[in-house]
Amino acid sequence: MMTQDENTNDERMAQGLHAVGAQYVALDDRIKLAKEELKTMEAAKRSLADLLSDGMIIEGAPQLSIQTGEGTAMIYPISQIWARKHVEATEEAFLQSLRDAGLSEMITSSVHTGSLSSYVRERADDAGVKMSGTSKILESLPPELRTTVAVSTSPTLGIRRKKQ
Fold first, then answer.
1. SS3 20
2. Which contiguous run of DSSP H or E holds residue 85?
3. What does the pLDDT read at residue 2?
């Protein structure tokens, strides 16, 4: 049989666990709300990045310097280029086009899209069309690849901060 003191200690421990449990649930709820808010902010940031990226390309501005309360932020365009088999190209035609372009080393049981994307980025960079859109990037490729390789770009913006 438990003594009065033992009952009191057990009750205190149970109350303490409930208090910690309530804090845990409240923190979990705050995290869920913060994640939703973060999704909203990321979507707004993507919209602003699209506007800035397009505007910087149109204006021919390689970078944009912004004064903040903490110093200077340098905004500059970054273009990610990815290549893969064009959706309308058959696998056989795609693989043959790579062979015809002298890229058979990329072919294994499947094409390593990272290697293909790297090749396309190099070609676009060499042609000076890295920031010019997919049609210009496709034009920088050998003719054998232009109808079998799909190219997409993912323009983003980098920020380099300099504290005062």
1. helix
2. strand 71-85
3. 58
